[in-house]
């Protein structure tokens, strides 16, 4: 099952390319996603918490405010 972040990646960058190309922006984005996912970042928040605090910036990015 895809995470919300993975769904957002697909919506913005598209599906993973069938053959990796180092200069392809989509491939580069998915490499960064894989590194982020492997770092365990996704375990810091559950999807409901992110939905409650994330603020859409209007340019396809989201702002996650720091906790005070």
Please give a structural write-up.
With 68 residues, this protein is mainly alpha-helical. The protein has one domain (4-63). It contains 3 helices and 2 strands. It has helices at 4-13, 25-38, 47-53, and strands at 55-56, 62-63. Strands 1-2 form a two-stranded antiparallel ribbon. It is globular.
Summarize the structure.
By secondary structure, the protein is mainly alpha-helical.
Q: What is the chain-wise order of helices and strands?
A: HHHEE
List the quaternary state of the chains: single chain
In terms of structural class, how would the helical and strand content be classed? mainly alpha
- Radius of gyration (CA) equals 13 Å
Number of domains: 1
Q: Total number of β-strand segments?
A: 2
Neighbour order of strands in the largest sheet: 1-2
**Basic shape:** globular
Which structural traits does this protein have?
single chain; 68 residues; mainly alpha; two-stranded antiparallel ribbon; 2 strands
Outline the fold blueprint.
Layout: H1 4-13, H2 25-38, H3 47-53, E1 55-56, E2 62-63
Antiparallel strand pairs: 1-2
